[in-house]
């Protein structure tokens, strides 16, 4: 944002004013930079024949400027006192009299030395990314990425917080040398929570794939809320967030008794960056058993366990948490004005570009480690608990019918390093080679089934293995869409939006739908960035997926054979 004002210089003080600014105090210059001020110009009207002579016209650029913090700093106070003898100032302070000017025209504005960006911290189960989005256009400018992992050590498998935090700080410090990072948005995977004692973890952040929490299955099942209240299906491992808390409360009673706040995973990282604690609905409503999506409040189970009172205030998704901690700004080189925004659950971030669209209903397939299919403005009537269907909560707090399976993980397990062509897909269809679910235990309609491949005695080439993976995830997506209250338009976001075989197969199987692939490679990161900066111009470029008429008849027979087999599971 550009700020402009007019100030008033005493006559005869023109040279002294320029001299003092030529000798600007280094500590003042640093103070201005730390508040994100750049492109600062002051012009003097020195025309003595003009009644407005000795006016100073000042302009500068800054993002989310904290004017009070800027003005209250001792160095600014001393500067104003130093300048008071040659300028008009306010009483009793020495602040210069400055009248704001209104912008009425702009032409051919040049970019500043550093491009202004929104940094998106995107923590997935498989990978961690920091994506830089242009602060004006929303275009993806840069990605830094590393593999995520779990510490498999006592007291239980847990998030490697220290390693992630060091990587985040080091990466931001490197990027800050090349970009002006005006704000940081956050999106993470769900089913993860931090049990805090003050500003420290009371317990390590439990990995949701830890099976040990199942030892209290009977006790938990007796206590958890009905599906009709929470719209959370009963999931394996720690995928119901309530399961984790229930188990930690029982097995680590002393440590849990000292927990004074519960931070959902996006909000944990928001706290690390800003020092401010909050809660947020998309992570609270993500198959946790802790939230009632239809009434938009904590579930009776969460209240009974006295966990609700340990959550901080529920803040709007994408709300401003605060600015970056001063010590962290100094350590990383980020501007002190860098704003931290309340984060969002990653699958819900994929919905953000579309939740404001005028259409009545829209189905989005968000693909990553999980393939999450959600229908904006859809009905909850079709949800079946035993099919791993649920109501997620979107960024506006609305219950959103959802079904999912671990598509990315299953695809990785089935594929090879060789890319499949449509000819390889044809080979799979012609020979009736079938992958029968499931190949991951985390969830989905067939989570409790053991995956198997019917290979007909044929040894597949690496490319044909990848073709089988493409066919499998397309069939699973098609199956899940049939269970859903889906719309006529289906948009594929994330990894599978670049898989031509997947898109072609889905388009062939679903003539009742128009299947689109998002051409914006940012996926969840783009949605998180849009929440934090609503002026971004994310256009959501889409391309229509087309059916290949040559494979459709064979695919229809193959699909029916696959459906018959999975119907027996």
Automatic annotation (TrEMBL):
Entry-linked Pfam families: FGGY_C_2 (PF21546), FGGY_N (PF00370), rhaM (PF05336)
Domain of life according to the entry: Bacteria
All copies of domain Carbohydrate kinase FGGY C-terminal, residue ranges: 361-534
Name the record gives this protein: L-rhamnose mutarotase
Gene3D superfamilies found in the cross-reference section: 3.30.420.40, 3.30.70.100
Lineage, top ranks: Bacteria, Pseudomonadati, Pseudomonadota, Gammaproteobacteria, Oceanospirillales
The species this protein was found in: Marinomonas foliarum
The UniProt record lists the keyword Isomerase: yes
PANTHER family assigned: L-RHAMNOSE MUTAROTASE
Start and end residues of each Carbohydrate kinase FGGY N-terminal domain: 118-352
Entry EC no(s): 5.1.3.32
Keyword annotations: Isomerase
GO molecular function per UniProt: L-rhamnose mutarotase activity
Top EC category: isomerase
């Amino acid at each position: 944002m550009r700020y402009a004002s007019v100030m008033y210089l005493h006559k005869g003080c023109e040279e002294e004013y320029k001299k003092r600014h030529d000798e600007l105090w280094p500590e003042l210059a640093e103070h201005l930079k730390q508040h994100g001020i750049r492109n600062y110009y002051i012009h003097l009207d020195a025309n003595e024949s003009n009644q407005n002579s000795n006016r100073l016209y000042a302009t500068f650029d800054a993002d989310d400027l904290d004017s009070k913090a800027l003005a209250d700093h001792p160095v600014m106070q001393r500067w104003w006192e130093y300048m008071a003898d040659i300028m008009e100032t306010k009483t009793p302070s020495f602040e210069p009299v400055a009248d704001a000017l209104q912008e009425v025209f702009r032409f051919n504005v040049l970019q500043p030395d550093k491009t202004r960006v929104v940094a998106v911290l995107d923590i997935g189960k498989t990978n961690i990314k920091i994506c830089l989005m242009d602060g004006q256009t929303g275009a993806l400018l840069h990605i830094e990425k590393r593999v995520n992992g779990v510490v498999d050590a006592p007291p239980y498998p847990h998030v490697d917080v220290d390693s992630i935090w060091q990587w985040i700080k080091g990466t931001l410090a490197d990027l800050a040398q090349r970009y002006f990072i005006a704000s940081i948005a956050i999106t993470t995977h769900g089913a993860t929570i931090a049990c805090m004692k003050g500003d420290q973890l009371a317990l390590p952040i439990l990995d949701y794939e830890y099976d040990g929490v199942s030892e209290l299955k009977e006790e938990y099942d007796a206590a958890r809320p009905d599906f009709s209240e929470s719209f959370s299906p009963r999931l394996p491992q720690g995928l119901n967030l309530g399961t984790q808390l229930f188990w930690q409360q029982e097995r680590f009673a002393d440590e849990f008794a000292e927990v004074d706040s519960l931070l959902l995973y996006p909000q944990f990282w928001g706290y690390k960056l800003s020092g401010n604690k909050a809660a947020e609905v998309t992570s609270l409503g993500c198959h946790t058993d802790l939230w009632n999506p239809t009434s938009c409040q904590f579930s009776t189970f969460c209240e009974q366990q006295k966990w609700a009172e340990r959550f901080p205030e529920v803040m709007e998704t994408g709300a401003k948490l605060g600015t970056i901690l001063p010590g962290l700004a100094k350590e990383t080189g980020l501007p002190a004005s860098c704003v931290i925004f309340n984060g969002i659950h990653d699958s819900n971030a994929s919905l953000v570009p579309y939740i404001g669209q005028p259409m009545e209903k829209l189905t989005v397939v968000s693909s990553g480690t999980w393939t999450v299919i959600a229908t904006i403005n859809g009905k909850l009537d079709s949800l079946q608990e035993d099919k791993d269907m649920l109501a997620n909560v979107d960024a506006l707090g609305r219950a959103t019918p959802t079904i999912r399976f671990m598509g990315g993980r299953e695809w990785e397990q089935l594929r090879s390093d060789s890319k499949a062509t449509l000819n390889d897909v044809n080979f799979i269809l012609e020979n009736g080679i079938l992958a029968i679910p499931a190949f991951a235990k985390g969830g989905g309609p067939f989570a409790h089934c053991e995956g198997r491949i019917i290979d007909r005695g044929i040894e597949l080439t690496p490319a044909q293995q990848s073709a089988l993976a493409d066919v499998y995830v397309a069939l699973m997506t098609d199956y899940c869409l049939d269970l859903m209250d889906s719309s006529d338009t289906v948009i594929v976001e994330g990894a599978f939006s670049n898989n031509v075989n997947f898109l072609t197969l889905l388009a062939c199987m679903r003539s009742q739908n128009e299947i689109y692939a998002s051409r914006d490679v940012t996926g969840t990161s783009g949605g998180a960035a849009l929440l934090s900066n609503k002026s971004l111009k994310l256009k959501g470029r889409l391309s229509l997926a087309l059916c290949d008429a040559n494979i459709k008849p064979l695919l229809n027979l193959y699909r029916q054979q696959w459906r018959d087999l999975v119907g027996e599971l």
